[in-house]
Amino acid sequence: MRPALLRSEKVEPSVTTLADSCLGYLAENPDELLAFMQFAGLDPDALRRSVGAPAFQRGLIDYFASNEPILLALCANTGTSPEEFMRVWYRLNPAG
After folding, report:
1. Which Pfam families does the protein's record reference (predicted)?
2. Using an 8 Å Cβ cutoff, are 62 and 18 in contact?
3. Which candidate among 46, 51, 66, 93 keeps its CA 20 to 30 Å from the CA of 32?
4. One-letter-per-residue 3-state SS of the chain
5. What residues have CB less than 8 Å from 64, skipping those under 6 apart?
6. 10 Å Cβ neighbour count for 2?
7. How far apart are CA 57 and CA 14, in angstroms?
8. What's the rounded Cα separation, in Å, for the pair 62 and 59?
9. CA-to-CA distance for 85 and 80, rounded, in angstroms?
10. CA angle, 62 as apex, 61 and 65 as ends, to 5°?
11. Which has the closest alpha carbon to 27: 7, 5, 47?
12. Using N-to-C axis directions, what is the helix angle for 82-92 and 68-78, rounded to 10°?
């Protein structure tokens, strides 16, 4: 049996989990999905082919990190704090 985690020991979401949450948010918000696709230069086929690729995951996280309204909406919907989200972003972008 694993010991219960204390509140201060909360496990940080993984890159994959966070990227999946970002993609899920976009899928539920077609206008935001279209804005992301236009920003990233993706058509529907390219989007489908990119899902799961590490570069695509980083791109999703970057996009949300640079767009505070959708970052805050995602965090509210998933129970992830903006600080947790940004810690993952900083791990991916150590130079800032």
Report:
1. DUF3572
2. no
3. 93
4. CCCCCCHHHCCCCCHHHHHHHHHHHHHHCHHHHHHHHHHHCCCHHHHHHHCCCHHHHHHHHHHHHCCHHHHHHHHHHHCCCHHHHHHHHHHHCCCC
5. 22, 25, 70, 71, 74, 85
6. 4
7. 11
8. 5
9. 7
10. 85
11. 47
12. 120
Asked if residues 59 and 40 have their Cβ atoms less than 8 Å apart, the reply is yes
Distance, in Å, from the CA atom of 20 to the CA atom of 16, rounded to the nearest integer, reads: 6
Residue type, 6: L
Q: pLDDT truncated to tens, each residue of the chain (96 aa)? A: 555 555 555 677 899 999 999 999 999 999 999 999 999 999 999 999 999 999 999 999 999 999 999 999 999 999 999 999 999 999 999 887
- Beta-carbon count within 10 A of 57 CB: 22
Q: Which token pair is 29?
A: 């918000």
Name the token pair of 73: 């909406």
The pLDDT assigned to 45 comes to: 97
Say how far apart CA 25 and CA 53 lie, in whole Å. Answer: 18
